[in-house]
Amino acid sequence: MPEPLSMELELAAFKLVKDVMKVKKNEEVVITIDTGGDWQVAEAIARASSVLGAKPLVAWYQMPPGVGKASDPYIPLNALKALLSNADVWIELNKSWLLYSTPYEEALKKGKVRYMCLVGMDAEMAVRTIGKVDVKLLYEFQRKLAEITRRAKHMRITSPAGMDVEFENDPQRPIFVEGEVSGPGEYMLFGQVDWAPIEDSINGIIVFDGSVWPPQELGLLKNPIKLYVKEGTVVKIEGGPEAKIFESWLKSFKDPNMFKIAHISYGCNPGARLTGNILEDERVWGAVEWGLGFQSAGFKGKVGPAASHTDGICLSPTVWADGEKIIEDGEFVHPELIDLAKKLRYGK
Q: Which residues have a Cβ under 8 Å from the Cβ of 287 and sit 6 or more positions away?
């Protein structure tokens, strides 16, 4: 008997490599996965790549305790640097991601690879967030959402959990519509629009009430984590046991940049659910995600490198752009988005 979701997974994997990553004959496709990842997904992507005439290679290794540069002492560093820097396509499925690690930095610096971050993706998630999504329509929605945000100078975000934070946007900084692969570079799973606000303009209270990862001890939250932010830096953390774990983890790096706000994003993948897997959680429809720590150079921000990176999810937010609502209680309400949102979620 075939495994559950096997046909749906094969279709999602083929859609990913052919339509999204644009894999071509004879290209070398490297799939990285650690022992925390879902081997079914790695196999499906490798098979789909082979069908297209590409040359897939799966690199599997023990899951490190940290992510980004914190993973460097625990991974086959030299082998990964050589492998990833020479690949045409790199699809990352690791639970503890290589994103922001030394092999990642060297691979992206060489300028050859098309990298897609699918960290921790399992079979069910692949089917829901790739296989069953109208990708072209989602791209259209993301572009419109980015355009609305790009026009905004001042933004404010609140939530039922007590978030109330304001900031300014820099029109010279990019707003990324994730998943549209157009050549070498870094790409994220579609269903996310993200950017870096002017860091020293970020003031107020951010409340994570969905999930946080890393550290590995966290995931889905039972108690909210409240961050007090002054000029882009977290100056105080409050909450229950999860807040203490989170603060201790940030402090453990002895790196002040770990307390800096690196970026913000909207979630807009109609298939995403809150599961504790941060890749999926930050794409939950109508959610807002904040990243702390390492800031990719592509954001053109002021934070720069850090010892690691973490992301937290804020549910049911209300987002204002220059006084006009984009999201209200987790639903996209802007008049330029409503019709597209209905088509994406309900097919009508």
A: 210, 266, 267, 274, 281, 313, 314, 315, 316, 317, 330
